[in-house]
Structures are given as structure tokens and as C-alpha cells.
Amino acid sequence: MPADQLHETWDLYDRQLRRVGQQLRADPVAPGRYHLVVNAFIFNHQNQVLLQQRALDKLNFPGYWDTSSGGSVKAGETIETAMHREMAEELGFDHPVTAADNYRVTPHSHWVSAWFAFQTTWTTSDFTVQTEELQRVRFFDLPDALTHLHQIGFDDYHVELQAAWNHLQNRK
Hints:
seven-stranded mixed beta sheet, 3 helices, 33% strand, globular, NUDIX domain-containing protein, hydrolase activity, hydrolase
């Protein structure tokens, strides 16, 4: 059974990101409509980034190394509440999320990606891995992370990882 929850309900948006309705995740998104997706890179104080390895039964890109955390925004959620939920569910990382943590919003054909960056003092063993969706997590130095991150969708993970790092450096 796939790890993906196809019974989830999403809010749908128009091109100006105005809410225009809802639908089930299992249904195709109609042209001119968009759903929201959140992604995060979490860095430690050794300038390493946490990556997750996707479960082998994920519908898309099973077994691939991915961002620290991410997923679809459910109906009624903001990007901030969805990012908080995804980190708590996937990693046991109950970290506050604010609009200032969001560094980019990128539109695509039928979804919009919201990107976040965080810093933590946690070690790998502090995270609680949600084994239904992830195999494991690990901190990587930035060059090593880039070799593990392959573009698995339309977002260029190498560009986003650098943008996340720059975002955190500019906030200091």
C-alpha cells in the first residue's frame, strides 16, 4: 500500500492564489487551478543540512534523497501551518514556523511550491522518523548533500538548497 494519502482534501487556488474550491488529492487538478506544496531545508550549527530518504512505497521517487521535510498543504491550512505539520509528522520536529522562514514561492503547472529554511541544534538521533513515508534522515555537508539531491520534480534542489542557506545567513 502506498505511503501517500490519496484521500486528503486540498484547497484549490487560481493564478492569483485566491482560494476557489477544494478537491481530493486522488483527483487530477483542472487547468488553471493550483494546490499548494511546502518544502523545508533544516540546517544544524555545523553548517550541515538534514535530508530525508523517501520510503520505498512512495508513489513518486521512492528511495530518493529529498528535502528535510515537505508535502501537500491540506484544506484549511496556510503554508506555515502545513510546514509545521509536515515537520512534526515526518520528523517529530515541533518547531515554530513564521512567514519570515519562507524564502520563496514558485508556481508550476498545477501546484505552487513554498520553500522554508530553519536552523536547529538537534542531532540526527533527536528526530523521530515517520517510517510510513521515510526510510531515514541524515545530516550532510553542503557539497555532499548536493551529490545526494537529484532533481526529482520541477524544482531545482541545488538552487533551492543554496537559496535556503543564503536565507539563513541573511537573517543573522
